[in-house]
């Protein structure tokens, strides 16, 4: 065999070993300027599910009696195991008031409520709050928004944030 053929055979064998080694999981040390990532790179983070959470309901106020009805829905595409809606009131509420089992106090002006599971395209059971605003204010502003959405991404967060002005007329103000 000629020297030229022998050299060519060595080069072809080396290239074949390098290519096969790189594709078979065999460790091949990248050289300078190599496009291969280092072996210590962490795995990419999982992508969060996408869910479009929305809150709707009504608020009414009369003689310091504040009535709030809120329902949440998920426009999808993924379901949510649970979410939390936050209701912030512009006035302090009477201390010691009982709340529905899915709700808790987040301060003297804030109530947090679990929605429960929200299937894609589904609605949660509604939550009704009957609260007392001491001093019978002439109006109350209620800010409604999502405190927690189960870690999902929401490309339309505008429909889960509302600000409702409820004058003390007893009329229901819809959001």
CATH architecture tag of the largest domain: Sandwich
CATH class of the largest domain: Mainly Beta
Order of helices and strands: HEEEEEEEEEE
**CATH fold type of the largest domain:** Immunoglobulin-like
User: Fraction of residues in helices?
Assistant: 10-25%
**Count of structural domains:** 2
How are the SSEs ordered, and which strands pair?
Layout: H1 3-23, E1 51-62, E2 65-77, E3 84-89, E4 103-107, E5 110-114, E6 122-123, E7 127-132, E8 139-148, E9 162-167, E10 173-174
Antiparallel strand pairs: 1-2, 1-10, 2-6, 2-7, 3-5, 3-8, 4-5, 8-9
Report on this structure.
The protein is mainly β. The protein folds into two domains: 1-31; 51-174, Immunoglobulin-like, CATH 2.60.40. The protein is built from one helix and ten strands. The chain has one helix spanning 3-23; strands at 51-62, 65-77, 84-89, 103-107, 110-114, 122-123, 127-132, 139-148, 162-167, 173-174. Strands 1, 2, 6, 7 and 10 form a five-stranded antiparallel sheet that branches. A five-stranded antiparallel sheet has the order 4-5-3-8-9, with no helix packed on it. It is elongated, with a radius of gyration of 30 Å. The model is unreliable at 2-31 (pLDDT under 50).
What descriptors fit this protein?
175 residues; Immunoglobulin-like; 2 domains; 1 helix
């Amino acid at each position: 065999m000629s020297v030229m053929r022998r050299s060519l055979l060595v080069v072809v064998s080396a290239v074949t070993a390098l290519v096969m080694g790189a594709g078979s999981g065999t460790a091949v040390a990248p050289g300078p300027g190599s496009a291969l990532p280092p072996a210590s790179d962490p795995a990419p983070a999982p992508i969060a599910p996408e869910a479009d959470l929305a809150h709707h309901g009504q608020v009414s106020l009369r003689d310091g009696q504040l009535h709030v009805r809120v329902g949440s829905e998920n426009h999808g595409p993924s379901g949510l195991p649970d979410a939390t809606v936050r209701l912030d009131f512009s006035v302090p509420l009477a201390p010691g008031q009982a709340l529905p089992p899915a709700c808790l106090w987040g301060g003297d002006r804030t109530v947090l409520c679990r929605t429960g599971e929200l299937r894609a395209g589904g609605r949660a059971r509604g939550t009704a709050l009957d609260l007392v605003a001491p001093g019978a204010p002439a109006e109350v502003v209620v800010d409604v928004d999502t405190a927690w959405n189960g870690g999902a991404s929401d490309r339309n967060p505008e429909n889960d944030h509302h600000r409702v002005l409820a004058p003390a007329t007893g009329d229901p103000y819809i959001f």
